[in-house]
């Protein structure tokens, strides 16, 4: 059975709190797991969330500030300790190669798993698999930062009434799907396009073209909202978004499910992020993330 969900491991920006760990997000996409921005404490949060090293196929780091990357050392060593049997690929800004190297080899351990390093240095596709295309877009932050977007290929949805009208039943349904036509009936006559799902992950950034391109028409957008709107000047100075800015970007991009996260420790009331996002006009499904929350990716349209 396929599972597509976001497992939230941590939601704090810069400074963890009693209730919020540093960043960490696992996207389960059918049989694969993509770990985004493993901050300090991610390995323990994985245990609490029931996530194993064997669940990881890719690690995607947006940038090399500590709250987004200090957990790499522990996660990589756990991958090796557990002798994960499949390849694990790491994506991160190429300009931070020295930081990745230091974290990968921060202490002595027995290296049993070859981590494939696939650094990012430009907008565009990073990986193309039968299940998805992974691509990156440059963001606007004091250090080089990239957001990530996952796009499932479009498929076909068979239409039972049209199949019945043409007398296509049983094994012939599979045959017309494979071959594209059957007895003079074309596949597009008995089916319609089923748009692939789209997921985007946007961390530390000011509003920029990269945010809009990553968010465009997404089924789920995970996006930082470090500050509330009254601190918009502070957000801009430090290269971050407010709740209202993130929500407006989601509204304009046609996002179906908006997940706000990466909250400053200065705010005690998480509900205020939701109020400001709604005030900005976002009407879709909205989640203010909390640690260890599981958020299903919306079902296909």
**Quick one: overall form?**
globular
Largest sheet, order of strands side by side? 6-5-4-3-2-1-18
Give the number of helices.
10
Question: What letter string, H or E per element, gives the SSE order?
Answer: EEEHEHHEHEEEEEHHEEEEHEHHEHEE
- In total, the number of strands is 18
What is the percent of helical residues?
Answer: 25-40%
| Distance, first to last CA | 19 Å
Instruction: List unreliable stretches of 5+ residues.
Output: none
Radius of gyration: 21 Å
The fraction of residues assigned to DSSP E strands is 25-35%
Write a structural description.
The chain is an alpha/beta fold and 301 residues long. Helices cover 26% and strands 26% of the residues. The protein is built from ten helices and 18 strands. It has helices at 42-49, 66-69, 72-81, 97-104, 160-165, 171-179, 209-215, 232-238, 243-253, 271-279, and strands at 4-10, 24-29, 32-36, 58-60, 88-91, 115-117, 124-128, 133-138, 146-151, 155-158, 181-182, 185-186, 191-194, 198-202, 220-224, 257-261, 285-288, 294-296. Strands 6-5-4-3-2-1-18 form a seven-stranded mixed β-sheet. It has a seven-stranded mixed β-sheet with strand order 7-8-9-14-15-16-17. Strands 10-13 form a two-stranded antiparallel ribbon. A hairpin with a 7-residue loop joins strand 8 (133-138) and strand 9 (146-151). Helix 3 crosses helix 4, helix 7 (209-215) packs across helix 9 and helix 9 crosses helix 10 (271-279). The radius of gyration is 21 Å and the shape is globular. The mean pLDDT is 96.
